[in-house]
Design brief:
Layout lengths: L2 E6 L4 H12 L6 E8 L1 E8 L2 H8 L8 E7 L14 E2 L5 E9 L2 H10 L11 H13 L3 H10 L3 E9 L5 E6 L4 E4 L4 E4 L11 E4 L4 E6 L2 E6 L2 E3 L4 E2 L15 H7 L1 H9 L4 H7 L5 E5 L1 H18 L3 E5 L3 H4 L6 E6 L5 H12 L3 E6 L5 H5 L2 E4 L12 H17 L3 H7 L2 H10 L1 H11 L4 E6 L4 H15 L2 E6 L15 E7 L5 H13 L3 E6 L2 H4 L4 E4 L7 H20 L18
Parallel strand pairs: 16-17, 16-18, 18-19, 19-20, 21-22, 21-23, 23-24, 24-25
Antiparallel strand pairs: 1-4, 1-10, 2-3, 2-4, 5-6, 6-7, 7-8, 8-12, 9-10, 9-11, 11-15, 12-13, 13-14
Helix pairs in contact: 3-4, 4-5, 7-13, 7-15, 8-13, 9-13, 9-17, 13-14, 15-20, 16-20, 17-20
This protein binds fructose -6-phosphate.
The site of fructose -6-phosphate has 14 residues, from helix 9 and helix 17.
Length: 583
């Protein structure tokens, strides 16, 4: 969601911050702003895209070597200039940016208003700046005043603050991530590592309840009034990984990286996770969105080869659906910061469950809080929608299930899946043509059975996210229980028909769609199936756990090329954020 960056050092702060904010655009936002300190604090903020604002207002006119920047994803107050961050106190001397939700902001505003504070936005954030101002009346030390103000907040936040006369950045975390980047004679802080990669690979992840004072020569972290030490991590992501590398969009780059990334995912160390999961009589998986669909793949494999019942629960529903007796919970989250998944994992942990995290982000909340973490190794994923992170999750989860079932042969076969995905990528021009042919339709159904069903769900999610077309997925056998009533010549049905044991029944469902004059698109490795439809795509033969990997990739490409054809930005879909840090 919101993106934060802070800089203190010797470079022009507005330049570093603008670049950093560009790297955080993937998180999703609707307005942006930068404030820098050069004697006085100067500010530029507005609604709209970062580069549009920059064209109109030129962020680089902001002088100084200390500053903060923000991309806002509106929660409290509409999308407008006045609600964009940074926000300031009454006198324009203290400026801060915030990610999260201040739950007691109405009480705070009411009591501050009584003391004469005038608010200029509708945000919850602005109250924090006024609180710091109020505390400074009683306390000369800025760090203490900041700390006192923070102690009055209820809710979630990462806050980064600068003030006139202060050669320091003050920061606090309680919920949304905040990472400090360590340079030589310069320091950074940001919501996420990609913003820092061009400058440093040495980072410290703040923990909930931490407050940091960051100066150009170093930093101090406090938990309450106690100074604490946090581990310095070395990040193995490169700055190039956060660039488009010649591709028109991050999404296409990330789709294309999948053969290599899946190879890496399949070499992940799963021993610690397997030690926790081995011998269990029941698994519970919690996750959201695409990660939830990856969980469904795990369920199919775990139940079929291990005979262990597995329940997959949406993060947001876990609080209502749980028994309280869960012994082991697998929490799947690319970002490791999804609030719904995190709160499910925390709830499970609080009632005694062990948590195994499957994540892509080292040092993320889920990574740190789990009893064991498996890194999926997808590298930075900067398009808002999940592509390589989904397939890498599936690969790692399949590896865990196959390792638990001691299925060495199947595990070995799975290593070859990347070559099949390379073949899918070679058929890109065909998929692009398919997208062109489908671009006049508004309604899409995706169907699949067994191992292909999670791919159908993922395909429909990708399409709706980036094209804004109506798409839904059904287990192929479910069509006749309701949705068939919607099929006619205006509807597209994308049928996933791998030639496995589900094939004959899927083909009957395909016939049902043809009989209703739906526009059928078949993806299959069977000539018989491909011959049934005017539009089709041959997919390499896949078995078992390979199916969701091999079938998801052409659906990602179909969604991508349809979005491009419809002139939508596939990397930044409207209303969506990459890392969803609110429940
Ligand atoms: C879909 C997508 C979202 C995420 C979901 C969970 O393209 O990106 O549905 O999968 O928000 O995110 P993580 O995996 O970070 O917990």
């Amino acid at each position: 969601m919101c993106g934060i960056i802070g800089y203190i050092g010797y470079r022009k702060a507005s330049e570093v911050i603008l670049e950093g904010l560009r790297k955080l655009e993937y998180r999703g936002y609707d307005s942006a702003g930068i404030a820098t300190l050069s004697g006085k604090i100067q500010l530029i903020k507005d609604a709209g895209r970062l580069d549009e604002i920059h064209r109109r207002r030129n962020f680089l006119q902001l002088e100084g070597t200390i500053g903060i920047g923000h991309t806002r994803w509106a929660t409290h107050g509409g999308v407008s200039q006045k609600n964009a961050h940074p926000h300031s106190d009454s006198h324009g001397k203290i400026f801060l940016v915030h990610n999260g939700v201040i739950e007691n902001f109405e009480e705070l505003r009411a009591s501050l208003s009584k003391k004469g504070h005038r608010f200029s936005s509708e945000t919850d954030t602005e109250a924090i700046a006024h609180l710091v101002e109020e505390e400074l009346k009683k306390e000369k030390d800025f760090g203490k005043a900041f700390s006192n103000a923070i102690s009055m907040l209820k809710g979630t936040w990462s806050v980064v603050c600068i003030s006139e006369g202060e050669e320091a950045i003050h920061a606090s975390r309680n919920g949304p991530p905040l990472v400090i980047g360590i340079g030589e004679g310069e320091m950074f802080c940001a919501s996420d590592v990609p913003a820092l990669l061009a400058y440093t690979k040495k980072v410290v992840f703040l923990e909930d309840g931490d407050r940091a004072v960051i100066k150009k020569g170093g930093f101090e972290i406090f938990s309450g009034s106690k100074r604490v030490r946090r581990k310095i991590h070395s990040i193995n992501w490169s700055a190039q990984m956060a660039e488009k590398g010649g591709y028109p969009h991050f999404m296409l780059k990330e789709i294309s990286e999948q053969p290599a990334k899946i190879r890496e995912a399949l070499s992940a160390d799963v021993d610690e996770a397997a030690a926790i999961l081995g011998g269990q009589e029941h698994f519970t998986v919690v996750a959201c969105g695409s990660s939830y669909y990856a969980g469904l793949v795990f369920k199919s494999i775990a139940q079929s080869i291990l005979g262990v019942p597995c329940e997959v629960i949406l993060g947001s529903e876990f609080q209502y659906a749980r028994t309280g007796k869960e012994k082991v919970v697998i929490a799947i989250s690319q970002s490791g910061e999804t609030a719904d998944t995190l709160s499910a994992a925390r709830l499970a942990k609080s009632s005694g469950a062990k948590v195994v995290a499957i994540t892509n982000v080292l040092g993320s909340s889920l990574y740190r809080e789990a009893d064991a973490s498996v890194m999926i190794g997808a590298g930075p994923e900067l398009s808002v929608v999940a592509t390589k992170s989904f397939t890498c999750q599936v690969a790692v989860l399949a590896k865990i299930a196959l390792a638990l079932g001691k299925r060495e042969k199947e595990l070995e076969r799975l290593q070859g899946v990347s070559e099949k995905i390379e073949k899918v990528l070679e058929s890109q021009s065909k998929i692009k043509k398919l997208a062109d042919r489908l671009s006049r339709f508004k309604d899409f159904f995706y169907i699949g059975r067994g191992m292909a069903f999670p791919s159908a769900l993922e395909g429909a999610l990708k399409l709706k996210e980036i094209t804004y077309l109506h798409a839904e997925a059904y287990a192929a056998g479910e069509l006749k229980h309701g949705p068939l009533s919607l099929l006619d010549k205006n509807v597209v049905v994308v049928a996933l028909a791998p030639a496995d044991s589900s094939f004959p029944k899927t083909m009957s469902n395909v016939q049902e769609c043809l009989a209703r004059n739906a526009n059928l698109v078949v993806l299959s490795d069977s000539k018989q199936a491909l011959g049934k439809a005017k539009l089709s795509l041959a997919v390499p033969k896949a078995e078992g756990a390979e199916i969701p990997l091999v079938y998801s990739v052409p659906l990602q490409l179909l969604a991508y090329y349809l979005a491009v054809k419809l002139k939508r930005d596939p990397d930044k879909p409207r209303n969506l954020a990459k890392s969803v840090t609110v429940e």
